[in-house]
Amino acid sequence: MRLLTIILMDGTVFAAVLFLISVGLTLVFGVLRILNVSHGGIYAFGAYMATYLAIKILGAGASPYLTYLMLLAGAIIIGMVTGPIIERVFLRRIYGSDQHITLLLTFSIFLILDDLLKLIWGTKPMFVSQPYTLLGEFSIAGIPYSWYQVVLIVVSIVFGGALVWAVRGTRFGKIVVSVINDREISQAIGINVNRIYTVSFTLGAFCAALGGALIAPTISVTPGFALDATVLAFAVIAIGGMGSLEGAALGALIVGLLRALAVHLLPEADLVVIYLAMILVLVVRPEGLFGQVELRRI
Amino acid sequence: MERKRLPVAAVVAGLVLLAVPLVLPEWMKFIVTLALAKFLAVLAVALFLRAGMVTFGHAMFYAVGAYTVGFGAKWFGLRDIVLLVPLGAVLGAVVAALVGLVMARYREVFFAMLNLAFSMMLYGVLLKLYWLLLKLYWLTGGTDGLSAGAPTFLGYAPPREYLRDFLYYATLLVAGLAIYGVYRFLASPLGYYLKARADNEIRIEYSGESVRHVIYVTYVLSGALAGASGVLAAFTVGHIVPEYAFWIQSGDFVFVALLGGFESVPGPLVGAIAFEFIRTYASKYFPNEWQMTLGIIMLAIILFRPGGLWAIYEELAARFGRREREAERA
After folding, report:
1. Domains in chain B, ordered, with CATH?
2. Proportion of chain B above pLDDT 90, given as a percent
3. B244 by DSSP, 3-state: which?
4. B270-329 residues touching A, CB cutoff 8 A
């Protein structure tokens, strides 16, 4: 029972962060039809920037409650900077080319981001724990948890809900759906498709950075955790269905819980279990749980 | 005209490669041998790039080859390169035949990422196995990996000072065989279908060939190539670690294929040699920005010269040829 509680709680917390990252990846894929391999790099940048800002503001003697603001600021800065740059400068040149070109391009951006991170912040781990410890603890079945973990879950749910509302319930969302369905017709009826691409990619980048910023206080950020994020987020959206928001939520829960299960029961196999799950889902249902079968065009 | 020119260039390149151990210093010999060994794996990755598919996981078969050497030496006392290269290729092909059953169903991002997933699974297993082995067999030592030992050649153990040369020529021979084999494969109907896949998959099926079959056969072939590559690289480096299966290694293969140009068979060879030299110098002058260097070169190639180094060479050759012809006419 105790173990079950631990697994459920850990899994949900991890799923919450994973959802934030994956929903960005799935959004970018849905609109731009590009699998952004550099997504994990943006996530790592978000984590570093948030930690850096939080440490700075604590060093300046400000109230520790301001660190929450700094986490958010870090995510916004990274999202607003990396998103438009990557989309405008690089991706825009290769729209319409084959998938393997876009994969290679975002892969090279990933390589650059990964080293840039080390150049800017060095290779020493960075850690800021105030946001985590500040909110105090509570216990379930005798196991102490930080309220910060609850905050993570709440933020993730609210963010996901807002995103669904933005896509389904607003004018912007209708325009995005129209661009997803047919780029040329959308352009013909007067939609600025390029702008939608930039906005969507920036929003996706912001999701990744936010995921990084929010998880930063719970871990110590070290170089090299970027690729794991890309691969895990890909596993999530492959399980859920590429381009599906609900799929990302369900996929994140599955992957999060599986990982928690593996970490506590079979610690040698934590990543293997996730990859196995992804392969199983793809073998049984190649389009993912919520994905739509794509028509093959001649 | 073109047909005549190419074999001449090939003969010249072959002669230069044959002369390498006679003229180059020891450290360069090592670099070129390693480049030739890795070239086989790059060729495997390039096959898929021709078909418009990226794989971020071929380090998996490379590692299978390398560990064939490691475990072969450890458990069975196998050290003969003439035996181990085919064995590594066969094991690579067997693993590819199994993984390929799943992989042949997927394209594009799924193909790339599933390959990554499989190779990272192998990496995880090797890492654990490696620690297990460390506990079981190397309680005494401070060793951090399996050792390849010195290879024998059909039972003959060359003297130490000539070992590098023997290894070099063995690698060159295997690379030559691989070039021939891949040429033949690409000239076969399957090879043409593979290239056609990049343009239109459904038309291939209309013409009566199963795309899945084409990709499966290519996958098995690529596994064999990468397996042989791993054996040779393991002997060259002399040291086998789980990093052989790591994603960075797979990424390197893709990078080299792109650098040299995957549209041709010699392209990856040029790329592989250029790559090892770039790496040697880059790690000397800016050791911490290695990945960034790779990323920037790769970006530049994708955006400005998608054909890689080989395309630049062909462009130059064409320009040179035109000038020659004009001179003949005048």
Report:
1. 2-329 (1.10.3470)
2. 16
3. helix
4. 288-292, 294-296, 298-299, 302-303, 306
